[in-house]
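STRUCTURE:
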């Protein structure tokens, strides 16, 4: 499997773990300094975001992936994932969102890890 396909598979796992509320699975994909920038502009370190996932602030039900673009430059990479996601967040009702995640990654001891993601719509 080439580097770009490894990263695409990470994105698929990321959403599977989000839906399953699998915090350990998500941690396995994230660098220690990972952070998420929400559409609202709120920047959260991994553990704060995972706490919200586990306590029901963020609920994800399904994700259909429309596009996953990957660029690799040595030990760094960027990925833009576009997915239609069924979710209910911050106490709102369940809706389907066209979510775009702009991710950065770095290779740590031979393994790709997400270092950041920025959420928006497309």
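SEQUENCE:
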């Amino acid at each position: 499997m080439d580097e770009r396909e490894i990263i695409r598979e990470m994105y698929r796992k990321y959403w599977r773990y989000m839906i399953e509320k699998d915090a350990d699975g998500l941690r396995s994909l994230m660098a220690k300094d990972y952070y998420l920038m929400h559409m609202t502009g709120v920047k959260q370190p991994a553990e704060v975001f995972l706490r919200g996932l586990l306590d029901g602030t963020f609920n994800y039900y399904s994700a259909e992936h429309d596009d996953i673009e990957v660029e690799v430059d040595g030990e760094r990479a960027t990925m833009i994932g576009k997915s239609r996601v069924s979710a209910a967040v911050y106490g709102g009702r369940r809706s389907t969102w066209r979510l775009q995640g702009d991710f950065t990654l770095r290779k740590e001891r031979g393994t790709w890890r997400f270092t950041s993601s920025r959420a928006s719509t497309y």
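REMARK: The mean pLDDT is 97.
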